[in-house]
Design goal:
single chain, 500 residues, alpha/beta, 2 domains, nine-stranded mixed β-sheet, five-stranded mixed β-sheet, 18 strands
Length: 500
């Protein structure tokens, strides 16, 4: 696709709108009006005149050639935002006419629609905010209702956080194998087994150092989350070593939640679950993604359906009363009937929470690199997600967090569903960017939150385990930025709000 830009700087948003309809196609941005080229060509033009500004959008493909326009008063109170939104709407409407499809989220291309709705409610009230989402952003009623219900659940969780609150994220970036849909920075055990012992030792040192900083700053730990990768790739002794470091380094007396991802059932053993339970872990996530063996095989997920059932039963026998399961809608080789069978099988297990992901065609995933997947299954994916929105509430679950990703099949969303009282607090805090997240381990990103504002600063760890091990001293020195951030807050530096 060629996206011609003339008279404006809205290329980023217009690229995102284009990807809703052409998720796998390369988009070439041209400043000016390029007439030649094959495939889809979009001309987007802004001409500022004496009293108002003319926006023009033209879309061409083969015999299709349509133009839409709109005028924005030059004295509009939000002139630039209005021009950008109207241009995006023009392009969106032309694409819907060309392809004959609309998307549930309309013009929303961002990750956090719930946060967007919350901001609008804060600024303009509920009625105007909902009307804006519906009529200006073209969000369909089912998605708007989902967003609204999620917001209400999130608000109760957000109220628990205080200005001095924070969460701890611990990264274990290893997996037994890499699933074909995954693009995370994680290493297979086959390739990285020699790195793990040193990695665990250094991770414990980083946890201890981070705990010292949190104690010096008087921060209050709310949740702990072990992610990756697959944390249960570590041995039982290694898991115990890391959890002991957390216990020794942080005040856990006011901890509300302690989650460890056991996402790959083939990494689970009774010894590991006993070690986690003894450490005070309150919530585990065991993720089949599908209960169809043919689909598991097709996506390179090297475990069996029976292993998932065994891991789930083991979690219950080891005393875990808060278990999450993840499913993915739109997987290659799956279909609507098969997905419904998986959903029914999960509901029969009665987990405390179910997270429904929609397949995201990430550019670094094997599915995309090897060109083994396409978007022809998007209609099935939309039906799958719609089914969850009917079945899960009927089974006693409600949505409590929601986020979106680019290149999602059918332009859907990821939603966490939970029974009342079993919501994953960390999931809400990280997606809403509620409070500071202190992060340890390779690929981890510390997010420092200015209380009462949307301002964030980030501190990045090295991405890969070999870098983490090799450059540990340099990486640890970066954590001084945490102390400096809070010192600036307490000093009342302009633009930095003091802690309450």
């Amino acid at each position: 696709m060629i996206l011609n830009i003339q008279g404006h700087t809205f290329h980023f948003e217009l690229e995102n709108i284009s990807r809703l309809f052409l998720p796998q196609e390369k988009i070439q941005v041209v400043y000016g009006l390029r007439e030649d080229g094959s495939g889809v060509i979009a001309d987007t033009i802004l001409e500022r005149e004496e009293a108002d500004t003319l926006l023009v959008c033209r879309l061409r493909l083969d015999d299709f050639d349509r133009t839409l326009s709109y005028r924005v008063p030059n004295d509009h109170p939000h002139y630039r935002d209005e021009c950008e939104l109207r241009m995006a709407e023009l392009l969106y409407r032309l694409f819907t006419e060309l392809f004959g499809v609309t998307h549930g989220w309309g013009l929303i291309t961002g990750v956090r629609p719930v946060k967007l709705l919350r901001r609008e409610i804060r600024e303009n009230g509920e009625e105007k905010a909902l009307d804006w989402m519906r009529n200006r952003l073209l969000v369909k009623e089912d998605k708007l209702r989902l967003c609204w219900e999620t917001l209400k659940a999130e608000n109760k969780i957000l109220e628990l956080s205080r200005p001095e609150s924070f969460s701890l994220y611990v990264s274990v970036p290893f997996c037994p194998t890499r699933c074909d849909y995954c693009s995370f920075v994680s290493q297979t055990v086959e390739k990285a087994s020699k790195l793990i012992p040193q990695y665990v030792e250094l991770l414990c040192k980083e946890i201890a150092y981070t705990g010292e900083l949190a104690d010096q700053l008087g921060l209050r730990l709310e949740t702990v989350y072990f992610g990756g990768g697959t944390p249960t790739t570590l041995s039982a002794d290694q898991l115990a070593q890391v959890t002991r470091a957390v216990e020794a380094s942080f005040d856990l007396s006011r901890l509300r939640e302690y989650t460890v991802e056991a996402g790959r059932p083939d990494t689970v053993t009774e010894e590991k679950f006993r070690a986690l339970k003894a450490a005070g872990v309150t919530r585990v996530s065991i993720n089949p993604q599908t209960l169809r063996q043919t689909v598991l095989d097709a996506i390179g997920r090297r475990h069996t359906v029976e292993q998932f059932y065994g891991a789930y039963d083991l979690a219950r026998r080891c005393g875990f009363g808060n278990v999450n399961t993840d499913l993915i809608a739109g997987l290659p080789g799956d279909n609507f009937e098969g997905f419904c069978g998986t959903l029914e099988g999960i509901l029969q297990l009665d987990p405390e929470s179910v997270t429904i992901h929609t397949l995201s065609m990430k550019r670094a995933s094997n599915l995309v690199i090897q060109k083994r997947a396409d978007y022809r299954a998007q209609d099935d994916a939309v039906r799958m997600v719609a089914r969850t929105m009917d079945a899960l509430p009927c089974a006693g679950y409600h949505p409590y967090y929601l986020y979106r990703q680019s290149r999602m099949v059918g332009n859907q969303e990821n939603v966490g569903w939970a029974r009342p009282g079993y919501e994953g607090l960390y999931n809400v805090y990280i997606m809403d960017e509620t409070h500071t997240i202190l992060a340890c381990g390779a690929g981890a990103v510390t997010k420092l939150k200015q209380p009462g504002t949307d301002y964030l600063e980030r501190v990045f760890n090295y991405k890969f385990p070999y870098e983490y091990n090799r450059e540990f001293g340099e990486m640890l020195s970066r954590k001084q930025q945490i102390k400096e951030f809070y010192q600036r807050i307490r000093a009342g530096e302009p633009g930095i709000q003091a802690l309450a």
